[in-house]
What we know:
It contains eleven helices and 16 strands. By secondary structure, it is of the alpha+beta class. It has two domains: about 210 residues, Beta-lactamase; about 140 residues, CATH 3.50.80.20.
Amino acid sequence: MELRVKYVLCLLLFAGCATTRPNAIDRTIATKPLDHAIWAILVEDDDGKVVYSRNAGTMMIPASNRKLFAAATVVNCLGADTRLATRLYLDDNDVVLAGDGDPSLGSARYERDREFDGVAELLRARGVASVRDVIADVSRFDRVRVPGGWKVGNLTSNYAAPVDAIAWNENAIGDDAVPDPALFAAGALRDALVARGIAVTGTPRVVTEPHEWRGHIATFESPFIAHLLTTMLKNSHNLYAEMLFKRAAGGTYDFSVEQRAVGEMGLFRFVDGSGLAPDDLVTPEAVVNLLRWMNEPSRRGFWWAVLAQPNGEGTLRRRLVTLEQRMRGKTGTINGVAALSGIIAMPRGRYRYFSIIVNHHLADDATKAIDAIVSEIAQ
């Protein structure tokens, strides 16, 4: 009898080590000053078992966790193997760039910052010594260049760059956003032409209405959307999220497209593509449902490649490093908001899904508390 009691106690202790202890999470949440914040958490296993739940059906400000839904919409509407095509024309001695919503044009991270030098060489090879105007055609997108809900105080920063159908250098100079992305791109092209001996007798200008251009010279294709999504998700780049979302929605902020693409996941309301707007709302239940969809066997390889990885490139590079091989996720941070949602590989080929969102916090580093919770639920 004594041996049997010891055996049962060992089993109970082993089980305790293998499961999340709600009290440990509760203690983390109760730490000052986080005890005055609003927490919403859902942790579920493959079989639907709820490991931990707090306010899981509450609409919360998600910060960049919103990008998970935007990314799924982009893949569903455009496809991961699509390339976006910026077209170059020489029409009646005007040089025209017609945008297609490519956020990587002119981006050093994709080694495209010398792309306009190539335009000059193409024109020189055709014997062009001078041109008139340099035109940026952004008719692919509507004229809403600043998403609804963005705070005015953010609008001069590079993380809140205006959104248009043409980008150059990610619409920023250093830490500052450029006020007019299309005019900025046209000016950069003019400078490249002049620097290589092609005279520009006119001015850079922007066309917003559709036009049938003549004299097609070249097409500059983006990397595959799958690659662009790595910047959007791993690095949490707002401009990539905004431009790709608008491109998927037909060049507008038509959120009904997203509802049709991923609306079955649960409750959400978004007013931008990136999560910078504090008016965005989503429930942890919806986030977990989306993560389950992403982790279906037919999709798992792709999403594990583009989501952030602990100790890897992106926003998790210095966080949760012991989970490097087991976890993929998406961070989120704006004033008073911190979030982390993701997928954890568990023993015996199982998976655990979690969404942790805290709103209205005053802590200096709420991410430490979130990481403590993730470490706990990964046991």
